[in-house]
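Throughout our pipeline, every protein is held as a single compact record rather than as scattered files. Nothing more is needed to write down the fold, since each code stands for a local backbone conformation. For reference, a complete record is included directly beneath this paragraph.
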Amino acid sequence: MKALQCPFLSRLPSNSLTKQAPSVIGMASQCPVMRHAMKYTKLATATGTDMPTMMKKCPFPHHKMGGSTVAGISSLVGGHAASSSPTKSPAAGCPVDSKKPDSSKSEKGSSKDGEGRETPFPYEQFWSDRIEAKKKDHTYRVFRNVERNAQTFPLAKVVKEGARAKQDIQVWCSNDYMGMSWHPKVQNVVKETVDKHGVGAGGTRNISGTSPLHNLLEADLAKLHQKEAALLFTSCYVANDTSLYTMARMLPGCHIYSDAGNHASMIQGIRTSGVPKHVFRHNDPQHLRTLLQQQPKSTPKIVAFETVYSMSGNIGPLSELLDVCEEFGALSFIDEVHAVGLYGDHGAGIGEQEGELRRMDIITGTLGKAFGNIGGYIASSSKLIDMLRSYCSGFIFTTSLPPTVLAGARKAIEILSSEEGVMLRKRHQMNVSTLREMLYEAGIPVMRCPSHILPIKVGDPELVFRLSQQLLDEFGVYVQPINYPTVQRGMEMLRVAPTPHHTVHMMEYFVNSLVALWKKNGLELKQPHCTTCNKTLQRQHWMSNSNDLCAGADCDKYIQAVAAC
């Protein structure tokens, strides 16, 4: 069988392909195999694993180049090299090549029916096949039909398909972290705004869509983050994506350095910008320094990372990362989405809590989580904000946020900046600590993390879905299962997010429900043990260390090892 021509590799001389991996990447977006594989950048980067099978098994790179070049291309695309061993068979379902000739296709690849007539591409069948693939690997997403009640938060009702009655539930996975979406003062100001201004913005910011409320909210956000200016977007996904893309494309010879655990919105902006990217190990300032020192200080550089990581619950070493950025003349681009409203004296996030707001060059945040509304923003210098306002397509070419959202967000920021906000944050942290201790004592595998997010590791896509479904059906407890691609395979979890409004009674019920299902499904209830002496780790020690070691007076083997030295 004659091999098909690769639609992008064939554009380069075969004798120079091994030297031109970077050039190949510039054309990868034209290939249906490579384009799809490049979507998995975050997973490959975060885990250090090979690129997805679909990319590794694409027949074209292996047919035209050696395995080492494929590894080089994979490194450029996803941050880590793919396997260097050639794959003999093409990827399953590859739309460009196949194992056997297909008599129903002409030499140009068009499909034909039994009588030789050309037929259109089977779009609906293709969509169906893609959906079925998600279901088979247990990553198909089921959206729970949750009916929220502003009077009973965090209690709600779930509407099940085919059921007449609605089921009462406790919600344990909402990002409405502080309950601002139903706060009476927020509700009242939104109602007043509807009566006064209506419900729509009227257009883009440039065409009748800018109001005094937009300007006031942007001023509020700039003040909150101690910056000269701020700019509103329809979401923080858009803010991250379009801001990173625009800055990277405009800065001459820019390089971007991205934390391996970054959110998809930042990865998207970095990828589409097309500038050189460097992925540093998660929360690792030393690795970032190693990468930065390879470029002259005069080279424009952007370092993108988060403060609170939404799935692991990790908090980044902000001060150390800022030190490295300043040492090498790099702009810091910092996502505080899961921190604003929750940390700091006024709810400005980890930057305020650690006294680092002034050193943070660019801050992005959301109005849709702790602030209880919707929308995103960026805060920085007035010149940078004006540049983004003038060049960001994600800002320019979309309808602006409506007056109800603007007024509601302003009121939520006001509340969380006040003494009431201080009280809510204290209660929130107390509830998080209480629930974490309950889970630990019950032997539920809650992951070690310092933030308000409590990930319970399950590690199996089918099992995590089953546990979530059983919690809902048998106990009226709603925790959404988290699986790939939100987290890497093998890290499937139940992501728990307590609020200041969950009671101790609710926590006890939730933990007892989990324990019952852990036993029902034959799972082990076990507190963390020292990997040296196998003794149960005390909760305080487990929380204050990054590894499962006693390394102290209670560890017999540790004492013996020290004595032997």
About this structure: DSSP finds 22 helices and 14 strands in the chain. The chain has a mean pLDDT of 84.
